Structure formats: C-alpha cells, structure tokens
Amino acid sequence: MTVNEDKLRQSLVTVMREMDASGLNHGTAGNASARIGEHFLVTPSGIPAAQLTPEHMVKIDLSGAYSGDVRPTSEWRMHAGLLAGRPDINAVVHCHSQYATTLACANKPIPPLHYMTAVSGGPEIRVAPYALFGSEELAEIVIATLEGRRACLMANHGQIALGRS
Q1: Taking the model in full, what pTM does it have?
Q2: pLDDT for the residue numbered 2
Q3: According to the model, what pLDDT value does residue 96 have?
Q4: Burial letters for 55-78: b for 16+ Cβ neighbours within 10 Å, e otherwise?
Q5: Pick from 57, 71, 79: which is nearest to 10 by CA?
Q6: Which fold has domain 3-163?
Q7: Contact status, residue 146 vs residue 160, Cβ threshold 8 Å
Q8: How far apart are CA 130 and CA 58, in angstroms?
Q9: Can you give the residue ranges of every domain in the chain?
C-alpha cells in the first residue's frame, strides 16, 4: 500500500463513521468509495461503521475484480460504473438519510425551491427509478440518472452523491 492509499482507506472509515454518527446511516447501511489510479477502494459488505478499519476497505479494479476475504458492498457495481464513466469524480457516497429516503419514496424530483438544489448539478434533484439494491439494473439506472449531475435520490432507497475528492 502507498501512503495515499492508506490515507484513502482511513478517510473512508471516517466518512462512514461520521455518516452513522449523524444519523445518515444505521448499522451496515450505506457505502462509499474513492478512486485510486485504475482501481477504487470501497466499503465492505456487512460490517457496521463502528467496527470498520482501513483494512476492511476493498480494492477493486474498474471491471469489478478484487481479491481477499472481505466482500465489497453489494452496491459495488454502481461505484465501479460511476468511477469508470466519470473521470470528473473521485468519490461516491451513498446513504439512507431518513429525510432523503422519505422524499425518494414519493418518486418525484425535488424542484428548485431552494438554491441548494443546484449542488446536484442541475435545476432539480432527479430521482432514479426503483430497482433491487445491489443489482446491475440499479447500477445502470443510477448511472443514467446521474448523467451530468452530482447527486440524485434513489426511489424507495436513499440518495447518492459524487465528488471530486
């Protein structure tokens, strides 16, 4: 591992713990990833935020290949597709905030009622149609919904946001 990879692993642990502490996730819900060259680091499946360590982060190439005993989040396809197709982003965060998830259950975009909707990269915050969590279909739908955007709701599920760092 490089110094940069070590820092990214620790950053992902910190992000997941902060999301859990702030109520954006509970237990093993939510996931995050960070690009590292032609690979990305992603949070594991089934390990609560409070128990995460940097060693739990799974290193995956952009085609989805990884090694080791720790399984990546079931949403790894979404992270891989976004990072492979969006050279403008280096990080992906998906969580299940009760407020955003409630709005996502309405299955309606959030209109530009407040200037902060612009953080999504457009005039409204889009909603990706529902698909089963962890599925290839969900990954494809979310990737398409995020085209030209930095955030969206995921119908009956939660939200996802993209960042340069």
Answers
A1: 0.94
A2: 67
A3: 94
A4: ebbbbbebeeebeeebebbebbbb
A5: 57
A6: L-fuculose-1-phosphate Aldolase (3.40.225)
A7: yes
A8: 26
A9: 3-163
Q: In whole angstroms, what is the distance from residue 141 CA to residue 131 CA?
A: 8
Contact by Cβ (8 Å): 79, 89: no
Tokens describing residue 73: 């989040």
pLDDT of residue 12: 98
- Around Cβ 32, how many Cβ atoms within 10 Å? 25
Residues of the chain with pLDDT under 70: 1-3
> What is the rounded distance in angstroms from the CA atom of residue 55 to the CA atom of residue 13?
10
Closest listed residue to residue 158, CA positions, set 83, 105, 118: 105
Distance CA 145, CA 127 (A): 7
137 is catalytic: no
Three-state SS sequence of 62-129: CCCCCCCCCCECCCHHHHHHHHHHCCCCCEEEEECCHHHHHHHHCCCCECCCCHHHHHHCCCCECEEC
pLDDT tens digit sequence for 40-75 = 999 999 999 999 999 999 999 988 899 889 999 999
Question: Which residue among the candidates 55, 75, 136, 147 is catalytic per the annotation?
Answer: 75
Question: From edge to edge, which strands make up the β-sheet containing 91-95?
Answer: 58-61, 39-42, 31-36, 91-95, 158-163, 151-154, 127-128
Question: What number of residues does the chain have?
Answer: 165
pLDDT of residue 3: 61
